[in-house]
Amino acid sequence: MADSHKITDIWLYVDDKFQGVYPIGSVMPVMNNGNATVRLYGGIVNNGIAGTRLPYTFYNPYIYNGTFEAGKTYTLVPTFEYRSGIQIQDDSFLPSGSFYQGSGDIIPVMISDPAKVWSGSGNSIYMTVTDAKPQAMLETSAPLALPLGGSDVYLEMDYKCNHEITVGVIGGGVEQRPALTLRPTSTWNKIYISLTSVVSTQPTYTSYQVFVQAIKQPSAPDAEIYLDNLRLVRP
Q1: What are the CA-CA distances from residue 183 to residues 70, 139, 159, 166, 218 (Å)?
Q2: pTM (2 decimals)?
Q3: Which residue ranges make up each domain of the chain?
Q4: What share of the chain is helix, strand, coil (3-state, %, to 5)?
């Protein structure tokens, strides 16, 4: 499991007062002369939708205490770590085992070709569908007890595909609930997918399985879908 992330924005607080949201690398005004506490929160594009940017609830803020002088520029290089006490289920897709299993007409497989896998090393998952065999799915092999009542549940994932794929949950082993459909991308893309609403929607279940599914579209080419760094995060 690589340290994959896609922090796009910084949410700035100075002495606990919100000062705005700035793209990574921006000059941010502190507006203080003297001692101040700066808190930087790592922001993401929720569900890959540009209009839904928010601070990622599972990251700790980066905190800097310092003395500031008017007219000077200070360079900070923040690092963001996961909060303690949360549950993180990583999958490195090792030959010795995985949290995921395949199903459908064509079973997803593990590949290690450096020309195809994420970052050029390790293992990734490859999925395909054709007109003759139109369905493939990757799903968690064991049911998971996920928090309800609107608690945040996220699936972080890197993917590359020439065919759309759908991510969601299966409630109680019976009800499939899509959360998001991803469009083709010619390069690897990191995304933070909120599963909160599909998990907390009534009726709720005592267990869920997370899935990534491809269903062949008549006008689409035979699918080439690559997945890596699946990370399920919840309180």
Answers
A1: 47, 19, 10, 9, 15
A2: 0.92
A3: 9-68, 87-234
A4: 5, 50, 50
- Indicate the fold that domain 87-234 takes in CATH: Jelly Rolls (2.60.120)
Closest to 54 measured CA to CA, from 9, 5, 6: 9
For 50-95, the pLDDT digits (tens) are 889 999 999 999 999 999 988 899 899 999 999 999 999 988 676 6
Q: Contact, 160 vs 186, CB < 8 A?
A: yes
**Alpha carbon distance 220, 235 (integer Å):** 38
Mean pLDDT of 133-162: 96
Q: Which two tokens stand for residue 167?
A: 């991510």
Distance of CA 154 to the CA centre of its chain: 6
Tokens of 37: 């506490």
φ, ψ of residue 201 to 5 degrees: the values are -65, 140
What CA–CA distance (Å, rounded) separates 110 from 18?
45
